[in-house]
Amino acid sequence: MSKFDDLVEEYEFLEADDRYRLLIDLGKELEAMPDALKTDATLVRGCSASVWVYPTKQDDGRLHFLADSNAAITKGIIALVLETVQDQPIDDVLKTDIAEKLAPFDLKNQLSSNRTQGIPNMIALINETAERYQS
């Protein structure tokens, strides 16, 4: 079972407050993003909180993302989104339906619209990055 599958299973059994804690804890596990990378160029548009994502292509062709937010729950959502594709080969990233993988978390009904409005923009950024690196 992957870490993502474990998260889905755990999330299903939690009450609302514990789900928030799970997201916050997940955000705390994100790899630190250097402040120098938190620029206008890495800022994800459409998020209520500040969200930065910096993609890199590893030597073995896998995509790795550094990300951060100034809001704890938003940072957890970012971590959850990245968990679907982090360190995957570019072709696998392009084949992944991130929104579908996130469906079990029902984020739109679990969180306020302010907290989830940037998710489609993050997914688009991931897909655009994979397409750019594939070319």
Short overview:
The protein is of the alpha+beta class.
- Mean pLDDT reading: 92
Number of strands: 3
Integer-rounded radius of gyration:
14 Å
Given the helix and strand composition, which structural class is it?
Answer: alpha+beta
Instruction: Count every helix, treating DSSP H or I runs of 4 or more residues as helices.
Output: 8
**How many domains is the backbone divided into?**
1
What gap, in angstroms, lies between the N and C termini? 32 Å
Dominant shape: globular
In this structure, how is the largest beta sheet organized?
A: 3 strands, antiparallel
Widest β-sheet, arrangement of strands: 1-2-3
Helix content: 40-55%
The quaternary state of the protein chains shown equals: single chain
Secondary-structure element order, N to C = HHEEHEHHHHH
**Text of the CATH class:** Alpha Beta
CATH architectural designation: Alpha-Beta Complex
Strand content: 5-15%
| CATH fold-type name | Sufe protein. Chain: A
Low-confidence stretches: none
Describe the structure.
- This protein has a single domain (3-134), classed as Sufe protein. Chain: A (Alpha-Beta Complex), CATH 3.90.1010.
- It has eight helices and three strands; from the N terminus they run ααββαβααααα.
- It has helices at residues 3-13, 16-28, 72-83, 90-95, 98-102, 107-110, 113-116, 119-134, and strands spanning 51-57, 62-69, 88-89.
- Strands 1-2-3 form a three-stranded antiparallel β-sheet.
- Helix 2 (16-28) crosses helix 3 (72-83).
- InterPro entries: Fe-S_metab-assoc_dom (IPR003808).
- Belongs to the SufE family.
- It holds the Pfam family SufE.
